[in-house]
Amino acid sequence: MSNIIYYVSFIILGIGIYGIVSQKNLFKQLISLSIIDTAVNIFIVALGYVEWGEAPIYSAITPVANFVDPLPQALVLTAIVIGVGTLALGSILLVHINEKYGSLDPDEIRDIREVVE
Amino acid sequence: MRRVWAILVAGVFLYFLVGQFLPIIPTFGNVDLFTRVAFDIINKSTTTNYNAVEFKKSKDLEDGSANVVTSIVVNYRSFDTLGEVSVLFCAAIGVGILASMLKSKKRIEFEEHKVLMISTGIVLPLILLFGAYIFIHGHLSPGGGFPGGTTIALGILLLMLSNNEFKVTDVAKHVEQSAGAGYVVIGLMGMAIGGVFLINFLPTGVVGNLFSAGVVPIVYTFIGFKVGAELSNVISDLREG
Amino acid sequence: MIALLIAVPLAFAFASIPHERLGRYFLPFVALFNLVCLFFFMEPGQILEVGRWPAAYGIALVLDNVSYPFLIFVNFLILMMALSATLENRYGTLLLVLTAAVNGIILTGDFFNSFVFLEIISVIAYIVAAHKDNALGAFKYLIFGGIGGTMYLLGAVSVYVKSGTLNMGYAAFITDPLIVPTICIFFLITFLVELKVLPLGLWAPDVYSNGSSVTPIALGSIVTVSLVYLFSRIFLNIFDLPNPQLVGILAMISIILAELGALKQKNLGRALSFATISGVSTVVTALSMRESEIASAAYFYLFNDVISKFILFTLFAYLGERGFKSNKTAGIAFTFASLSVIGFPMFAGFWAKYYLLKALFQASSYALPAIILIAAVIEAGYLIKWNVELWYKGEDTPENTPKVQDGEQDSEMENEANEVEESFIPFGAQIVTLLLALTLVVIGFMPSLVHNQTMSIANNVLDFRPYLDLILRGGM
């Protein structure tokens, strides 16, 4: 059971996928996408753990270089920023949709579009 | 019916992850760093022979920052950081374009609160100072340009919450543009001085000093300003309608 | 020198912020600069290690015989788009960053770097897709594309865990038959979303039919070409497809469903977007068969498909409602492009389908040729119907049916109406569509110009030795 952190991140990933497919409200789909991003970031950082390793910074208290893997941490830095950019764009698109159709529920939106056409 | 589909899709994907993907990756903590590139990056020996790095003693190594993650993000894989800066840039421009196309410009108003106004006056300079500390010391302690810029943007958000007439002006746009152009210019200067794009052309100094690691603190300062200005622009665009 | 292809557009993008319209004027010059650099100052067979770190530790930009033709094609398309599209607000800045990102994703030799460039392209695509008030389609694309990007990240990280480095050349040394399919399934999901193969490509009709002159061309032509390059690089050169027959069958079903979907559409934009889905699915099916003749025909088909759809979408954006009565030259370009998509003998499309069918028969595969022929018949059905409708639009309106009653007055008003209507399509778009239509005719008579190039691309992409030599020569 030492892989428990992997299982935790997979469960969160599963919750996110369940959210995107089953939820109808568009905002909930956006939040599920953000949950998927978080789960993947947790998983990647966990891939770099070395047992008894320390944070990869040379300082007065780490004279010997017994570090965890720093490369996944650098990858996650970039991935988090990309997730933030996507979330910001999704939010402003939702403001547009809400202004045009009056609601964020795809059934109501489809009714309004059919009335217009 | 949707829920059945959702459970089916999530179940199939989780079965694939746990049944096929999990067996091929090493168990948690059981990583042998010698088989990965990370070993040479930690010991700063990608172009030289192995030599143990000592804090405050090793001088003029190929990369001088004490924070190994910073050395990856800004030195070894600096091209990725340039791309990441472009992602934020495009997202900020996109929010600006889409927010200006909204037909009903409703500004979100906040309630004025005496306690918040007074305490903001005390706390705001400390927040900005802390944010600046994070990105200036990016090569010595955890953090760097991105958390530093975010903290500065949080300070601006606090100012927005406490003071209803505060507007983020065009100064933020100019700061963002010059900081971004500054990063590309440093890359092109590396091309002019060292012959290769984004090469570290300043001396790297002693590991652990403030003035060390060549171009890294300069790049992180640019990134800190750029991220701070960008996130302030995004928050202000989302607020002004 | 190679890095200038990416750094110069990025620098100009940052420089175009002060004034809103600057980006629009910088774009053609930047594309022209890239083309000049590629033709006169660079030769295939180069590698640039960014920052002078060795290839396994840092990022390597590789210019070899496969990426060189793709780069020329993509920069040429960007130049054409810069002259023909109407860009407002700050779309010029975004398209400059798109230029940098598309060049980057073709040049790069590193998995995480290609992920970052893929995300830049995705973020720009979400914004461009929301053009002309299409926020709902853009949001659907955002959800699909966000999942695709996350899967690509998982794939890149598993490459790192198994091979110790993120470099594409070194990653080719993973050959364990249990590990490679698992890693490739992650990449496959991303490409099924981005290359519009049908179960996961349902965002495409909503995004491409917004009637804008920028969106279908930037996303449907330019981004698709660069992603087909990345698909060939990962699945034909470095790794293997996890289950080629299954991918082939999925893409073939996608072709048929897309053609049937296009038949029922009443909106020309949606019909054209379904046609795009079917075209790219054909390319994916052909590429999944790993034969050099079939792959070369697939690249020829992509060339024809991208250029025809460029013309069709541009003319739909400008003239979709008005028909061709007053824009006969634009109408001729539209008809040429539709005939090329169907595969009529005087155009490039005929040679594309001919080479593809010939290569498939040589490889004794009969399912795909049957599907291509059925799809061609359906395409002929709806494209000819749309052509007739657009050429004769406005013939049944009451103003045109009465015989000459006010003689000269009538013809004067008609001349004025003609002059006013001619200005609805900008001069740049007219020139570009005519030029591309002429290209289709020229290639129709001399297919060997393109066919030799695609044969060399296919041979080089299926052989991993030149690529590995180029990267390992940098030393380790």
Overview of the structural elements:
The complex is a heterotrimer of chains A (about 120), B (about 240) and C (about 475). With about 120 residues, chain A is mostly helical. Chain A has helices spanning about 5-20, 25-45, 70-100, 105-115. Chain A has one domain (about 5-115): Helix Hairpins, CATH 1.10.287.3510. Chain A is built from 4 helices and no strands. The radius of gyration of chain A is 20 Å and the shape is elongated. The mean pLDDT of chain A is about 90. With about 240 residues, chain B is mostly helical. Chain B contains 8 helices and no strands. Chain B has helices spanning about 1-20, 40, 70-75, 80-100, 115-135, 145-160, 170-195, 215-240. Chain B starts with a helix and ends with a helix. By secondary structure, chain C is an all-alpha fold. In chain C, strands 1-2 form a two-stranded antiparallel sheet. Chain C has a domain at about 260-395 and about 425-465. At the A-B interface, helix 1 and helix 3 of A face helix 1, helix 2, helix 3, helix 4 and helix 8 of B.
General form of chain B: globular
Order of helices and strands of chain C: HHEEHHHHHHHHHHHHHHHHHH
Mean pLDDT of chain B, as a whole number? 87
Sketch the major β-sheet of chain B.
Answer: none
What structural category do the secondary elements of chain B indicate? mainly alpha
Helix-strand layout with pairing:
The complex is a heterotrimer of chains A (117), B (241) and C (476).
Chain A: H1 4-22, H2 26-46, H3 70-101, H4 106-116
Helix pairs in contact in A: 1-2, 2-3
Chain B: H1 2-21, H2 38-42, H3 68-76, H4 78-100, H5 114-136, H6 145-162, H7 171-194, H8 216-239
Chain C: H1 4-15, H2 22-41, E1 46-49, E2 60-63, H3 67-84, H4 91-107, H5 111-129, H6 135-163, H7 168-171, H8 179-194, H9 203-208, H10 215-238, H11 244-263, H12 268-287, H13 292-319, H14 328-342, H15 348-362, H16 367-391, H17 407-422, H18 427-445, H19 448-462, H20 464-472
Antiparallel strand pairs in C: 1-2
Helix pairs in contact in C: 1-2, 1-4, 2-3, 2-4, 3-4, 3-10, 3-18, 4-5, 4-10, 5-6, 5-10, 6-8, 10-12, 10-13, 11-12, 11-16, 12-13, 12-16, 13-14, 13-15, 13-18, 13-19, 14-16, 14-18, 15-18
Brief summary:
The complex is a heterotrimer of chains A (117), B (241) and C (476). Chain A has 117 residues and is mostly helical.
